[in-house]
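Support request, please re-run this one:
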Amino acid sequence: MNDVRRMANDKKRSEKDGITVMSDSLPLPESEFHRRVDAIVAALEGAFDEGDIDAEVSGGIVTLTMGNGSRIIVNRQTPNREIWVAAKSGGYHFRLDGEVWRDTRSAETLDALLARVIAEQGGGVTPITLP
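Re-run finished. Output below.
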């Protein structure tokens, strides 16, 4: 009976507010999660070595500061095996979908979202390539 209830809840979650939501997947082992997120943190830090965007890493949290002072925060959420992004346009949760980090509500990829919110917040057009 619990499986039937869980499947019904998954269906509700997948069609919430007219937005297709990613269903829960098998948990990524913690060590693999950290390895993948560490690679993303390093890539973000290296992507902004020069230019008007400052990337600061502290405790595994990346703070991207635009030339106008606005910030974007990229943070790991280990219990959920997610990467969270906080930007002026909102908060976003990313879960690994195969080899790509996708927003749990819109399915937008992490690199596409970061490029978009950086441009929106005054950081210019910055192509982002993440591992």
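The helical segments are 2-14, 30-47, 110-120. The radius of gyration is 16 Å.
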